[in-house]
Design brief:
9 helices; single chain; 37% helix
């Protein structure tokens, strides 16, 4: 049995059990939108309502593509996605579930000391604790802890161990806490040295301001893949503004603040920034 066939077979088994499923690309990313939806050409919002799913024939809009319909999963429009699939994901909220994503050993220790026992699934870096019940999804409710339920997807790994219990108030309360103000920790030598005698090639400071604002919004709106989103956003900012000398520490602080508010550690922020600079040679 090929890997592709295995992913599809797993998806069909999960769909039969009531889990809305979708293929993942390599790196745990959702399949890209179809041509009619690329670049938000479809308007996005109607397809991204909490009820879902996306109505496109191909798997579009990440979690909104998840389905329990075997005819859709095996349709020609989905064939290419399964051909290149790197895994299977599911929409927890669509199955009436909430996943507490524990991304570090410290987070797992905290959960074992704080939360009621439930179905537990090992992950690469920690564990998924799965409860019966839905709620809004929130990233970074604690260091290394994300809540995945409505309007997000979670990677399927196994059925886990332990009896599933009802979603406790202790988990719901995590989403209602107002996060403490983030005091970003910036790396040394934050801003690239200006090139071209420090002359900015942009026509107006408003261009830079729009770029930083859009970068903040992109990080803040991310529902999953936070590490990847932060790195790609830093890379885009440096690609546009890293060589002309107009990027200041204030701008970088804004980006780090947005990233850390989503649960990124200062170390991960620094690593993402440095890796982006290295890749671009700035």
């Amino acid at each position: 049995m090929s890997t592709t066939t295995g992913h599809l077979r797993t998806a069909l088994q999960l769909a039969e059990s009531g889990l809305p499923v979708m293929p993942l690309r390599r790196g745990k990313l959702p399949v890209g939108n179809c041509p009619d939806c690329a670049g938000s050409a479809c308007g996005d919002r109607p397809n991204m309502a909490a009820a879902g799913p996306c109505q496109c024939p191909a798997p579009c809009h990440a979690w909104a593509a998840a389905t329990t319909n075997p005819n859709v999963l095996t349709s020609p429009a989905w064939a290419r996605a399964w051909q290149y699939a790197g895994g299977v994901a599911y929409h927890p909220g669509g199955a009436g579930l909430t996943v507490v994503d524990l991304d570090t050993s410290d987070a797992v220790t905290w959960a074992r000391q704080t939360l009621p026992a439930t179905t537990t699934v090992p992950t690469t870096r920690g564990e998924h604790w799965i409860y019966q019940g839905t709620m809004r999804s929130v990233n970074g409710v604690r260091v290394g802890v994300d809540l995945k339920s409505l309007m997000v997807y979670a990677r399927w790994r196994s059925s886990g161990t332990g009896a599933m219990t009802a979603l406790p108030d202790a988990v719901r309360a995590l989403a209602d806490k107002t996060p403490a103000p983030v005091r970003p920790i910036l790396p040394a030598a934050t801003v690239p040295a200006p090139a071209g005698n420090g002359r900015c090639r942009h026509r107006s400071p408003a261009y830079l301001e729009r770029g930083i604002t859009m970068a903040e919004q992109q990080i803040t709106a991310a529902q999953s893949g936070i590490h990847h989103t932060v790195y790609r956003t830093f890379l885009a900012v440096l690609s546009a503004h890293g060589r002309c000398g107009c990027l200041t520490e204030t701008h970088v602080e804004r980006l780090f603040t947005a990233a850390q508010a989503k649960g990124e550690s200062p170390r991960h922020c620094t690593a993402a920034w440095d890796n982006a600079r290295t890749r671009l040679g700035v």
